[in-house]
């Protein structure tokens, strides 16, 4: 999976539980599937991933991933992430490679900062499919 | 302005600051008067206004200002001056005429030609004007049905300035449009031009109220010279004072050239002392621009400023450790000391507003000023000056620059995920935080060593084990509840300092 884009976007994802989500991410980013799932769960115990209404941001730093990635999923149907995070419609997952180079880190932090903008989150939540992908591609191009 | 006017003004100001109804009891307490007087004042204000009810009342709730009408009323008030004069206005005008012509004697019947009043009124006017002039060490002399004002030139000018309300404007551009009688439009434009020239020559701007102050000085100088080209100065300037002025070559040159232009404009010569007078006004003005930054402060200025800051900080109970306040205030104190020395008074048109808005602060400043006058052996610092000083402290408090920012670390597992997000959210809502770094939780020990003066750690994750009191756990949502808890934490930190 070398040379993959830092940003990935998926529209109409059919996840139904957070376990589905962890499973999928682990499968697509690491050889050590179980370790990655475990890391997500451990991180979540320390603090909730909810960053805005209907939006979660699961994120880990791991020795077991080959490439850092930001994956955005717009769900076909909202589901309850956990008891507090209900009706989730947008998942933004970050896996950060251990000791990632500074340039990539900078791109990631720029993107993270933009998530503090409620209007941007709102657009991601409501955009049509093409616009949704564009929002993220735009990021990849503009900021790289 | 007499005290009755002041009360009306104070009442209006207080109501304009309150959106809701205020009871007459409360108003009486604020104005330190009886409820009856409050009723009377309100009736008077409403009667005077061109709108029937500037202040509206409601049973059981009290009084409220109709703000829209109030603003309109304020605007129209200035332009609606009739042809008839109140006794107060009449006396003012007569006095001004006499002052401008001093020491020339003016025939009484000519002075009163426009006013259609009898001898007894004129006689009582003389008493009032005479008393008023006494305050400025001037004498009203009556001889063979003429009147004349006798006294030192500096006092005459001071009296003209103090008794003329036109010089109470805040925006100097208002002078251009002013419709008041006795005001020569050409002179106004010419003087405004001189002000611009001064600003250009010195590469500075002269802010309110100093611009108005210099304006009035020049205006009075023009009027005086024209009415009475031969007036003689009894005032003396010592050689030492002259030498001191000449050493300040920049300002000296500017005032020389302005006086030169005045002479051309008037087509008459002016005595050398005018250069010195104008120079005093320039030195006593606060200037914004390059001059200020290069000017060194004398040790007296530094000391006075320090006493103000120390005393005020102990009185209002906050630590003032703020270089910019010091510089600002010192740059105000410097010309103020000059004004005190040369008895130049600047009118503070915002004074009543300052007293109402920052009453406690103002009282404290007044106390400290009295202390400073005593300690440094200075003339009394008047209310106008205290009003200006109050504003420096008010500004500092309102912008809460008195607290240094809180050095903050933000932590999450990666030091890049939620912490970046939180940083963006927190720094927007809490400018008092100085976010020095974002850290991953596993590195937190290392970072605490790197930034030993960090006062707060905002974290999105629960940290096991070493949990210092510095840290605050918030969600990445940064909810209203999180913000409230952070606000409390910030207050705690300020308090603990």
Automatic annotation (TrEMBL), chain A:
The keyword Transport applies. It holds the Pfam family PTS_EIIA_2. The keyword Ribonucleoprotein does not apply. It comes from the Bacteria. Residues 1-143 form the PTS EIIA type-2 domain. InterPro entries: PTrfase/Anion_transptr, PTS_EIIA_type-2_dom, PTS_SugarTrans_NitroReg. Keywords: Sugar transport, Transport. This is PTS sugar transporter subunit IIA. It comes from Jeotgalibacillus terrae.
From TrEMBL, chain B:
InterPro entries: BglG_antiterminators (IPR050661), HTH_11 (IPR013196), PRD (IPR011608), PRD_sf (IPR036634), PTS_EIIB-like_sf (IPR036095), PTS_EIIB_2 (IPR013011), WH-like_DNA-bd_sf (IPR036388), WH_DNA-bd_sf (IPR036390). Keywords: Repeat, Transcription, Transcription regulation, Transferase. The keyword Glycosyltransferase does not apply. Residues 406-497 form the PTS EIIB type-2 domain. Residues 182-292, 296-403 form the PRD domain. Gene3D superfamilies: 3.40.50.2300, PRD domain, Winged helix-like DNA-binding domain superfamily/Winged helix DNA-binding domain. PROSITE patterns: PRD_2 (PS51372), PTS_EIIB_TYPE_2 (PS51099). CDD domains: PTS_IIB_bgl_like (cd05568). The keyword Glycoprotein does not apply. Pfam families: HTH_11, PRD. PANTHER family: CRYPTIC BETA-GLUCOSIDE BGL OPERON ANTITERMINATOR (PTHR30185), TRANSCRIPTIONAL REGULATOR MTLR (PTHR30185:SF18). This is BglG family transcription antiterminator.
């Amino acid at each position: 999976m070398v040379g993959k884009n830092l940003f990935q976007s998926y529209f109409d994802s059919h996840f139904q539980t957070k376990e589905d989500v962890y499973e999928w991410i682990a499968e697509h980013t690491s050889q050590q599937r179980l370790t990655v799932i475990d890391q997500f769960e451990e991180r979540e115990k320390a603090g909730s991933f909810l960053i805005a209404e209907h939006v979660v941001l699961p994120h880990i730093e791991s020795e077991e991933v080959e490439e850092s990635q930001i994956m955005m999923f717009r769900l076909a149907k909202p589901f309850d992430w956990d008891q507090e995070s209900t009706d989730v419609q947008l998942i933004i997952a970050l896996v950060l490679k251990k000791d990632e180079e500074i340039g990539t880190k900078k791109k990631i932090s720029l993107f993270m900062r933009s998530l503090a903008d409620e209007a941007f989150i709102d657009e991601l939540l409501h955009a049509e499919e093409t616009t949704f992908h564009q929002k993220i591609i735009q990021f990849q191009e503009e900021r790289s | 302005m007499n005290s009755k006017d002041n009360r009306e003004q104070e009442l209006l100001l207080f109501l304009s600051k309150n959106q809701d109804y205020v009871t007459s009891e409360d108003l009486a307490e604020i104005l330190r008067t009886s409820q009856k007087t409050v009723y009377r004042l309100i009736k008077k204000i409403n009667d005077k206004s061109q709108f029937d009810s500037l202040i509206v009342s409601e049973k059981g709730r009290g009084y409220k200002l109709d703000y829209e009408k109030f603003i309109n009323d304020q605007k129209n008030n200035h332009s609606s001056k009739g042809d008839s004069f109140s006794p107060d206005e009449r006396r003012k005008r007569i006095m001004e005429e006499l002052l401008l012509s001093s020491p020339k004697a003016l025939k009484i019947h000519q002075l009163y030609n426009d006013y259609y009043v009898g001898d007894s009124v004129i006689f009582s006017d003389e008493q009032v004007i005479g008393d008023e002039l006494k305050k400025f060490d001037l004498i009203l002399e009556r001889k063979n049905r003429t009147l004349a004002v006798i006294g030192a030139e500096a006092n005459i000018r001071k009296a003209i300035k103090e008794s003329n309300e036109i010089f109470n404007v805040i925006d100097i551009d208002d002078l251009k449009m002013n419709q008041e009688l006795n005001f020569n439009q050409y002179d106004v434009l010419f003087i405004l031009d001189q002000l611009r020239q001064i600003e250009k020559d010195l590469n500075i701007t002269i802010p309110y109220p100093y611009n108005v102050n210099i304006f009035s000085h020049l205006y009075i100088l023009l009027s005086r010279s024209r009415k009475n080209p031969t007036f003689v100065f009894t005032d003396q300037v010592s050689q030492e004072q002259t030498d001191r002025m000449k050493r300040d070559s920049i300002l000296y040159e500017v005032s020389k050239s302005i006086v030169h232009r005045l002479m051309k404009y008037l087509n008459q010569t002016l005595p050398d002392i005018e250069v010195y007078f104008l120079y005093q006004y320039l030195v006593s003005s606060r200037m914004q621009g390059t001059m200020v930054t290069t000017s060194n402060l004398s040790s007296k200025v530094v000391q006075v400023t320090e006493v103000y800051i120390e005393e005020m900080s102990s009185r209002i109970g906050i630590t003032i450790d703020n270089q910019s306040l010091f510089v600002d205030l010192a740059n105000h104190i410097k010309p103020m000391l000059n004004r005190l020395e040369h008895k130049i008074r600047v009118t503070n048109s915002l004074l009543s507003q300052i007293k109402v808005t920052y009453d406690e602060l103002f009282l404290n400043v007044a106390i400290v000023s009295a202390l400073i006058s005593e300690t440094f052996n200075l003339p009394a610092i008047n209310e106008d000056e205290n009003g200006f000083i109050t504003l420096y402290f008010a500004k500092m408090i309102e912008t809460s620059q008195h607290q240094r920012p809180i050095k903050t670390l933000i932590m999450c597992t990666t030091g890049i995920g939620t912490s970046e997000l939180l940083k963006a959210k927190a720094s927007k809502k809490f400018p008092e935080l100085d976010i020095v770094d974002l850290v991953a939780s596993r590195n937190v020990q290392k970072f605490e060593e790197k930034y030993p003066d960090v006062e707060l750690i905002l974290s999105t994750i629960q940290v096991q084990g070493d949990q210092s009191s510095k840290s605050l756990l918030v969600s990445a949502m940064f909810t209203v509840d999180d913000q409230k808890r952070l606000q409390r934490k910030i207050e705690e930190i300020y308090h603990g300092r």
